[in-house]
Amino acid sequence: MCGRYGGPKSLEVYAGFQPMKAPFDGVTLQLEYSIGQMAPVFARDRDGQVAVQLMRFGLIPHSWKSAAKEWRYSTQNARLETVATNGSFARSWARGRRCIVPAQWVAERLGVVDIPGGKLQADFHDSQGRPLGLAGLWDCADTSEGHLLSFALITREPGPRMAKVHPREVCILKPEQWAPYLAGDQTVDLAAPWPDDAWTVYLPNASRKRIEQASQDLFAPQSAA
Predict the structure, then answer these.
(1) Where are the domains of the chain?
(2) pTM of the model
(3) CA 198 to CA 167: how far, in whole Å?
(4) For position 224, what pLDDT does the model report?
């Protein structure tokens, strides 16, 4: 699943949809983030206010006491269907440790059977060019290197169009859902897939060349998708 995503162009736009501590001048943004990197997320602090916080991409549960670099489990994604029972995520979920990850796009590897190598890198954007709010959860661990905050992206079953190219999708929240989600509102529907007309795919040059060489229809039904 998703182990890379595009960093937001700015954080101010997210403040327009929920009360939060600003400004964000001290936060340096990157073009993209991958597993193990520190990235900005929005979460509620001890006073219940929404604030931006740097956290490690790839959740390390509170029980981990060794160095973060020794963590070998794939915990960058938490399945919505099992987030409440999975040993790595259940405690955070029960405690309402929700976060919103600001992003411009999310990356996936597409299983296209007619392409040599079998996997294509693709980036999924909002079709209207709007910034994304990715649903996540976070935890804190007292590792041997010190206190560490970390997060995971929540994933769900995809809609019909997405299912043709990938079996899962990251939970994308609408702007009006950001504040209720962080507040723990149980009426926020995390299972509703990203609408088929709400996203578009960008293929990096290497993937685009492989598609052209194989004359592959990206959205034709694929047995490996």
Answers:
(1) 4-214
(2) 0.89
(3) 17
(4) 33
